[in-house]
Amino acid sequence: MRHERPDPAGEFIERMGFLCEADGLPRISGRLLGLLILEGGPFTLKELAQRLNVSRASVSTNARLLAKTGIIERVAVPGDRQDYYALDENPGARIHAGVLERLERTYQTLRSAEKDLPREMDDARRRVRSFGEFYGTVIRHMKALAKEFPSAE
């Protein structure tokens, strides 16, 4: 049996697919992100589909999803009408901002629930307050961490 040498780039792309899938995104989104992390871009949808060995429709759907988050961006190439996609210049800050936004929404939901629950639900209010305190602490640390990144705007 012949043992082939592993392809580190291909393995990275596949691992990114599994990681994103574990975070609730389609696996192809992670594979697309992995490819763009390695190679930057810009690439047409057709080129991305060929490189990842998937349909152009799948790449299109997942490229729009990642572009909506700001991790990748749709770019124009002068003289060419096709859409191109490339890794955003500052994806870490965009990811950080998205995580912080989701944490803050959860925190506000917990704060509202604590305030709105009736007095006879003291145990529930205590648990909600505890979760709110946790989220508040994480948010404070995330905001401090934001100073480490260049602006995502």
Architecture blueprint of SSEs:
Layout: H1 8-22, H2 27-39, E1 43-44, H3 45-52, H4 56-69, E2 72-77, E3 80-87, H5 91-116, H6 122-146
Antiparallel strand pairs: 1-3, 2-3
Helix pairs in contact: 1-2, 2-4, 3-4, 5-6
How would you characterize this protein structure?
The chain is mostly helical and 153 residues long. It folds into two domains: 8-87, Arc Repressor Mutant, subunit A (Orthogonal Bundle); 91-146. 66% of the residues lie in helices and 10% in strands. The chain has helices at 8-22, 27-39, 45-52, 56-69, 91-116, 122-146; strands spanning 43-44, 72-77, 80-87. Strands 1-3-2 form a three-stranded antiparallel beta sheet. Strand 2 (72-77) and strand 3 (80-87) form a beta hairpin. The N and C termini lie far apart (53 Å).
Descriptive key words:
2 domains; mainly alpha; Arc Repressor Mutant, subunit A; 3-stranded antiparallel beta sheet; 6 helices; 153 residues
Structure, briefly:
This protein has 6 helices and 3 strands, in the order ααβααββαα. The protein has helices at residues 8-22, 27-39, 45-52, 56-69, 91-116, 122-146, and strands at 43-44, 72-77, 80-87.
Tell me which CATH architecture of the largest domain applies here. Answer: Orthogonal Bundle
Shape: elongated
Supply the CATH class of the largest domain: Mainly Alpha
Largest sheet: 3 strands, antiparallel
Structural class: mainly alpha
Mean pLDDT: 90
Q: What portion of residues is helical?
A: 55-70%
CATH topology of the largest domain: Arc Repressor Mutant, subunit A
Count of folded domains? 2
Sequence of strands across the biggest β-sheet: 1-3-2
- Spell out the CATH superfamily of the largest domain: Winged helix-like DNA-binding domain superfamily/Winged helix DNA-binding domain
> How do the helices and strands follow one another from N- to C-terminus?
HHEHHEEHH
β-strand percent reads: 5-15%
Count of distinct strands: 3
> How many DSSP H or I helices?
6
pLDDT < 50 stretches: none
Distance between the termini: 53 Å
Query: What integer value in Å does the Rg equal?
Result: 21 Å
